[in-house]
């Protein structure tokens, strides 16, 4: 009897808000780690030294950049090309704010992610006209805070 009543109450608590409340997405906060990176150092008998890694110790690898780009495409699918969309199809500063720790691999991860979220722009609007500009790349700011002032990242 108790289990049946508990199941009924649980069901009603789940279904009631769905039926009687307006489900409207108001805010999204996404937190992720950097993509694949090179080791921070090697061990004494390791034959691979820092020159093995194009960016050096601890830097983001091309695999890590691709991982973040793919994540950006997934976020685009979820929040931009969905019906109804939560974000505009092009970068809009009032809609999105990107924050990174002040470390190369995390900043490049954020930039790679944004390239997946906002893959194409309009010449003359999102980026300059001309053949010297990278193909449809829209620059989007990634904000950082000095490590000693970063109170958001204290426990991450």
From TrEMBL:
Task: Give the Gene3D superfamilies listed for this entry.
Answer: Phosphoglycerate mutase-like
Q: What is its EC number?
A: 3.1.3.2
Q: Does the keyword Glycoprotein apply?
A: yes
Keywords assigned: Disulfide bond, Glycoprotein, Hydrolase, Signal
Annotated signal sequence range: 1-21
Q: Does the keyword Methyltransferase apply?
A: no
Q: Which reaction does it catalyse?
A: a phosphate monoester + H2O = an alcohol + phosphate
GO MF terms here are: acid phosphatase activity
Family named by the database record: Belongs to the histidine acid phosphatase family.
Query: Protein name, please?
Result: acid phosphatase
